[in-house]
């Protein structure tokens, strides 16, 4: 009944006073004429979702995270490669890159490499495309913004947050700040929900601090990029790279937006916009009364034009709008849907979604192990080449080089290589165990 077809065109909106009270383009055009900015279609549309099966140029295929899946036994390859109607797991996770955008991404990567900013995990196609989109595909601006992001990640300690940060006050914070991920929309994107009208800021600040809450927010953003999006991609059998969000603002007015609340909002907005760009597909603000509409005039000035174009501010008769993009089974009962998640103490406590599916998580773990295996092989090759290069350079130096120095250089190279081999063996053993469990799951599904 609510089958949705996504059709997009590039549009131009005006950035003015920030009055984003209506969702129609005609209302948006009344925002003012201070600044224009291109609004791009959803990021998933910049992957070729339905590539032809025959005569596909190899240059259009995503660069795999391992040297080649063909190097693995057929049983392992089939377990990882086949998904749904024969789609490749790597193609689903990576998307089939559009040659036009891949060329721009490669140009940006080359500039970053030339300036010494090559970071393996952050310079993948997906990350760089986001920064290109936020910069309207201006290479110079995208490079500057990306370098700023790398600097922030290092200074803020994002990697350390992922490894060490523990948000013990999670359950208590959920009670005074109801929020969470819950299911997927009709296109397979994660749904994120906040009930702003029920936030108890005093209780929140007793349960945690602004700094710890922001760190928790960053850890959730990283989980979305690294786990939720890939899991949703596998479940939807297409690349997923953005979220659909719902903000319930029932009871929110000017008095709600205190100095502390403004500070928290601005800090989170800054992080989301500058360091995790283009992750929002659309935002529905529901139960917007007169009090919130007055507040929205102030809030809208903090948002960039591209974000404003994705926001739909709705009153109390919002259900039909939500059902156009979200199935009723994935909509919590407090928003007019059928779900209660009674086993989890409520929908916003459940973290319901494909990222909780054990089989999908095993597939992601398998893919991660294969990535680590490839990295180990690559590091081993580089270490050996560097050691051999050092030995050769010493041979050519003035004053000669003793046989003992040559032997020492070779011993260092062999030791480094042996360490990498041991790490590779451990990774392969882990991969074997995971794949055996995955094979058992596949056999069970076939019975």
UniProtKB/TrEMBL annotation:
<dbReference type="GO" id="GO:0000139">
    <property type="term" value="C:Golgi membrane"/>
</dbReference>
<dbReference type="InterPro" id="IPR001251">
    <property type="entry name" value="CRAL-TRIO_dom"/>
</dbReference>
<keyword id="KW-0175">Coiled coil</keyword>
<dbReference type="InterPro" id="IPR011074">
    <property type="entry name" value="CRAL/TRIO_N_dom"/>
</dbReference>
<feature type="domain" description="CRAL-TRIO">
    <location>
        <begin position="169"/>
        <end position="343"/>
    </location>
</feature>
<keyword id="KW-0813">Transport</keyword>
<dbReference type="Pfam" id="PF00650">
    <property type="entry name" value="CRAL_TRIO"/>
</dbReference>
<comment type="similarity">
    <text>Belongs to the SFH family.</text>
</comment>
<dbReference type="InterPro" id="IPR036273">
    <property type="entry name" value="CRAL/TRIO_N_dom_sf"/>
</dbReference>
<keyword id="KW-0333">Golgi apparatus</keyword>
<dbReference type="GO" id="GO:0015031">
    <property type="term" value="P:protein transport"/>
</dbReference>
<dbReference type="GO" id="GO:0005886">
    <property type="term" value="C:plasma membrane"/>
</dbReference>
<feature type="coiled-coil region">
    <location>
        <begin position="407"/>
        <end position="444"/>
    </location>
</feature>
<dbReference type="InterPro" id="IPR036865">
    <property type="entry name" value="CRAL-TRIO_dom_sf"/>
</dbReference>
<protein>
    <submittedName>
        <fullName>Phosphatidylinositol/phosphatidylcholine transfer protein SFH11 isoform X1</fullName>
    </submittedName>
</protein>
<dbReference type="InterPro" id="IPR051026">
    <property type="entry name" value="PI/PC_transfer"/>
</dbReference>
<keyword id="KW-0653">Protein transport</keyword>
<feature type="region of interest" description="Disordered">
    <location>
        <begin position="376"/>
        <end position="402"/>
    </location>
</feature>
<feature type="region of interest" description="Disordered">
    <location>
        <begin position="13"/>
        <end position="65"/>
    </location>
</feature>
């Amino acid at each position: 009944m609510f089958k949705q077809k996504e059709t997009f065109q590039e549009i131009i909106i005006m950035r003015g006073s920030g009055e984003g009270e209506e969702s129609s383009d005609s209302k948006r055009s009344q925002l003012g004429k201070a600044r224009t900015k291109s609004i791009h279609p959803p990021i998933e549309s910049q992957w070729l979702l339905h590539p032809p099966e025959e005569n596909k140029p190899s240059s259009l295929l995503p660069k795999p995270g391992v040297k080649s899946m063909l190097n693995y036994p057929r049983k392992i390859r089939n377990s990882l490669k086949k998904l749904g109607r024969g789609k490749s797991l790597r193609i689903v996770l990576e998307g089939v890159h559009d040659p036009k955008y891949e060329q721009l991404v490669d140009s940006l990567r080359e500039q970053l490499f030339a300036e010494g900013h090559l970071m393996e995990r952050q310079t993948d196609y997906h990350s760089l495309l986001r920064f290109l989109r936020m910069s309207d595909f201006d290479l110079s601006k995208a490079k500057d913004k990306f370098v700023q992001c790398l600097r922030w990640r290092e200074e803020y300690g994002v990697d350390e947050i992922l490894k060490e940060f523990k948000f013990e006050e999670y359950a208590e914070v959920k009670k005074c700040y109801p929020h969470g991920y819950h299911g997927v929309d009709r296109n397979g994107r994660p749904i994120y929900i906040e009930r702003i009208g029920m936030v108890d800021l005093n209780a929140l600040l007793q349960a945690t601090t602004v700094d710890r809450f922001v760190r928790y927010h960053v850890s959730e953003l990283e989980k979305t990029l690294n786990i939720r999006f890939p899991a949703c991609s596998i479940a939807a059998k297409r690349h997923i790279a953005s979220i659909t969000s719902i903000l319930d603002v029932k009871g929110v007015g000017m008095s709600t937006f205190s100095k502390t609340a403004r500070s928290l909002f601005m800090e989170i907005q800054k992080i989301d916009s500058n360091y995790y760009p283009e992750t929002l597909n659309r935002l529905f603000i529901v139960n917007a009364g007169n009090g919130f509409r007055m507040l929205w005039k102030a809030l809208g000035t903090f948002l960039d034009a591209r974000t404003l174009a994705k926001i739909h501010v709705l009153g109390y008769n919002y259900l039909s709008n939500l059902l156009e993009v979200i199935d009723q089974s994935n909509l919590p009962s407090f928003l007019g849907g059928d779900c209660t998640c009674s086993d989890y103490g409520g929908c916003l406590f459940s973290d319901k979604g494909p990222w909780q599916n054990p089989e999908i998580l095993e597939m992601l773990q398998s893919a991660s192990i294969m990535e680590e295996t490839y990295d180990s092989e690559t590091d081993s090759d580089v270490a050996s080449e560097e050691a051999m290069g050092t030995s050769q350079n010493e041979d050519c130096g003035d004053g000669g080089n003793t046989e003992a120095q040559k032997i020492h250089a070779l011993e260092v190279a062999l030791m480094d290589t042996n360490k990498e081999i041991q790490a590779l063996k451990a990774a392969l053993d882990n991969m074997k165990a995971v794949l055996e469990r995955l094979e058992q799951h596949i056999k069970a599904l076939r019975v």
